[in-house]
Design a protein that fits this description.
By secondary structure, this protein is of the alpha/beta class. It has a single domain, classed as TIM Barrel (Alpha-Beta Barrel), CATH 3.20.20.70. Helix content is about 35%, strand content about 20%. Strand 7, helix 3 and strand 8 form a beta-alpha-beta unit. Helix 3 packs parallel to helix 5, helix 7 packs parallel to helix 8 and helix 8 crosses helix 10.
């Protein structure tokens, strides 16, 4: 059950028809593989859950090392390991009573694969799908598709033609102009935009002279990318009229509020769970609620995009 303090009326939000008891979500790629783990996240107070990215076929991902801690966050190149959507449907089906939206993150190597995987996820009971058009370290998918506005448009349209549930599009910051990607997604019918995924980066061991990650390049997450996320959300809010979900470096209620002021209707929490544990969902919600009372707002929806009016 979601605790009362995390589901009070002034925190409730609706995104693309999905009712959330509060504006916090588990980010994709974090604890999102087993039904048991996802249920634990829901019980900890998350307003919605996004699963780890799942493809049409199983994949073991890259060899270790795949994740390292750096001074400003984490660097990862997992390689999108997943059991494949046909096996993952059992996890989806067992979460039908979870009480909050279950959003399945999907990836593919073509618009058709995104559509097929999304269709299977929705048939199994997903509340929505989030298209991973932004993974920075797997060849042929993610950002390689998501950096091209035309491919974004084609992919979103292919999925929208196949499913009758909301389609979220997770965009990459590794681009010259994220607003062009947002416009492409919105024009094809995206129901919401998630911004952002990790920032392409790398680390080198000065003793061995070698790149540390097995894949050499990975994605940077954590506190360092929050200002990038704020900028991207702010720009997207001024460009398209679809709900935005802010993601990147959120560690506290202040970070969450900052992204909402920039234009996010909800926020996703990822790397911070490694430091704060699952209690972070409740602490962020409690902090937002205290902030709303202190500032005289009756609902969290009143602060969405407020920075654009000042």
């Amino acid at each position: 059950m979601v605790s009362e303090s995390v589901s009070s009326h002034n925190l409730r939000i609706q995104i693309a028809g999905l009712d959330m008891p509060n504006p916090t979500m588990l980010a994709s790629g974090i604890l999102g593989v087993s039904a048991e783990t996802l249920r634990t996240v829901a019980e900890a107070g998350a307003g919605a859950i996004v699963t780890k990215s799942v493809g049409l076929k199983p994949s073991s991902g890259y060899p270790n090392p795949t994740v390292i801690q750096v001074e400003c966050g984490f660097l990862n190149a997992m390689g999108l390991p997943n059991p494949g959507i046909h096996r993952f449907v059992e996890e989806i089906k067992s979460l039908k009573d979870i009480g909050i939206p279950l959003i399945v993150s999907v990836f593919g190597f073509s618009p058709e694969e995104y559509a097929e995987t999304s269709s299977i996820a929705v048939e199994a009971g997903a509340s929505a799908v989030e298209l991973n058009l932004s993974c920075p370290h797997v060849k042929g998918t993610g950002a390689e598709i998501g950096q091209d506005p035309n491919m974004v448009r084609l992919t979103v349209k292919s999925v929208k033609d196949r499913v009758d549930k909301p389609v979220f599009v997770k965009l990459t910051p590794n681009t010259a102009n994220i607003t062009e990607l947002a416009k492409a997604a919105a024009s094809a019918g995206a129901d919401a935009i998630t911004a952002i995924n990790t920032v392409r980066a790398m680390a080198i061991d000065v003793e061995t002279f070698k790149p540390i990650l097995a894949n050499k390049f990975g994605g940077l997450s954590g506190a360092a990318i929050k200002p990038i996320a704020v900028r991207c959300v702010y720009e997207i809010y001024e460009t398209v009229n679809v709900p935005i979900i802010g993601c990147g470096g959120i560690r506290s209620w202040r970070d969450a509020v900052e992204l909402m002021l920039a234009g996010a209707s909800a926020i996703q929490v990822g790397s911070a769970i490694a430091f704060e544990g699952l209690s972070i969902f409740k602490s962020i919600c409690d902090g937002i609620e205290t902030y709303l009372k202190r500032k005289g707002f009756r609902s969290v929806s009143e602060i969405i995009g407020l920075a654009h009016k000042k």
